[in-house]
Amino acid sequence: MDRIRHHLVLTAWCGTALFLGLWQTARAAEHYQLREDPKDARVRKVAVELKVNGKLFPSPGPEQALKLNVDAQFGYHERRLSATGRDAESLRCVRYYDEAKANINAGDQFSSSILRKSQRLIVSQGQVAGLEIFSPAGPLTYSELELLHVPTDSLAIQGLLTDSEIDLGETWTAPVWSVPLVTGVEAVEKGKLTCKLEKIDDQVARIGFTGDVTGATVGASSVVELRGHLLFDREQKLVTRIEATQTEKRAIGAVSPGLDVTAKVTVVRSLAEQGSRISDKELSGVPLEPNAASRLLLFESPVWNVRLYHDRNWHVFHQASDGALLRLLDQGGFISQCNIKKLPNAEPGQHLSEKQFQQDIQQTLGKNFEQFLQAEKLNLKDGLFIYRVVAAGSIQRTNEKKEPEINAVQWINYLVANPEGRQLTFVFSVDARQVKDFGTRDVSMVAGIEFLRPRNAPPPAPAEKPKAK
């Protein structure tokens, strides 16, 4: 009897094991389609946390390294927009940011970056070099543009989801065009992003992704390693969570310091339960296509009460109370440098004279000066005195072989003054071989300058009444 009972139990166990094995095999052989519908106009609520730790190198040498810590938070509502093209250009969305801020510690220096309330409506769209971001309300500042570029962006991550049906354990390579969007490497030389369906059940699928990318960012060579995963809600057809770690080693470039950092990103997404600022009604009449004006960047100095506009190839390298330095990159190559300096205020109508301005230019250039090529007044803006002087000369530089060589240079100088005696100078330094490539970018920048009215000081606080004893 015991032998028969044992035989029956063994037979039942084997049958169960065989059934489970067949079930798992059948499950593994299932095909799944895990992607968000690009025509899905539902509003998503998104929360992002970004933490960056590592070192920043303002100049060569390990002894020059500064400890870098960045803590950033973002909260926004997002919805997809119709595509304007294929591949990267198929990804477009509009967002309204309730929060976008970052606290930055570099060495003993602390700074913060925040998105202005007036610019909280943002359109993001894929391009060959990465995500293009602009505000329909007007130009962003350079720091705002940097702030809004985050690795594994919630729109860019859509490029990792394949249109094909996939099996559990299957791997696939993300399209080449998705690499700049996901990692931020603008000019990819080599590398790829590999994805894998790691787990799946009736509710959630987990997709892992990895990548090693070599290329250039803002003209500086960069090596990036990316590791992370995302969760896909099968019922809602929605990526609900992204966790990623991205390390980057970036060389010192013409417009940016060197980096050796690790960024950790967490993105949480859900369907919005309430209305938002991006409904069809709210967006009626809002231009959601970029134009020449929305692609400009705003440079503003509250200390000088001055603002101007420049194209995105100009990068703000340094800004202080007494001056600013911008550098121009074109297709990753350095073209020009612009120094802006505030001069002391003069009596109304008594700004620096043309003769004195030329003398100051010659004295500043010293032995590098050779001759003046041009000097003229420009009528670029009503009410402003604008005097342009082009000087030619040469400077000695060290080439790639660390050998000294003489380079011909042109310095395009501007004196700009308003009727009240407020005045600024601009100096554009251009290698003589690149004058043609530089074109009239100096005129474009100076033409947009605005002297703002001084801000009124806050009224003094009322004196406190003496307290009764």
Which key phrases capture this entry?
about 475 residues, mainly beta, Lipovitellin-phosvitin complex, beta-sheet shell regions, Protein Transport Mog1p, Chain A, 2 domains, 12-stranded antiparallel sheet, 7 helices, about 15% helix
Protein model, in words:
This protein has helices at 2-28, 142-148, 178-183, 280-283, 354-365, 435-438, 441-447, and strands at 44-57, 66-80, 92-106, 109-114, 121-127, 130-134, 140-141, 171-173, 187-200, 204-217, 220-233, 238-250, 258-271, 297-301, 306-310, 314-319, 323-330, 333-343, 369-377, 385-398, 404-417, 423-431, 450-451. The chain is mainly β and 469 residues long. It has two domains: 44-283, Lipovitellin-phosvitin complex, beta-sheet shell regions, CATH 2.30.230; 297-451, Protein Transport Mog1p, Chain A, CATH 3.40.1000. A hairpin with a 2-residue loop joins strand 5 (121-127) and strand 6. The protein is globular. Residues 4-27 have low confidence and may be disordered.
Average per-residue pLDDT, rounded, comes to: 90
End-to-end separation in angstroms reads 104 Å
Number of alpha- plus pi-helical segments: 7
- Looking at the chains present, what oligomeric state does this protein adopt? single chain
Lay out the secondary structure.
Elements: H1 2-28, E1 44-57, E2 66-80, E3 92-106, E4 109-114, E5 121-127, E6 130-134, E7 140-141, H2 142-148, E8 171-173, H3 178-183, E9 187-200, E10 204-217, E11 220-233, E12 238-250, E13 258-271, H4 280-283, E14 297-301, E15 306-310, E16 314-319, E17 323-330, E18 333-343, H5 354-365, E19 369-377, E20 385-398, E21 404-417, E22 423-431, H6 435-438, H7 441-447, E23 450-451
Parallel strand pairs: 7-14
Antiparallel strand pairs: 1-2, 1-13, 2-3, 3-4, 3-5, 5-6, 8-9, 9-10, 10-11, 11-12, 12-13, 14-15, 15-23, 16-17, 17-18, 18-22, 19-20, 20-21, 21-22
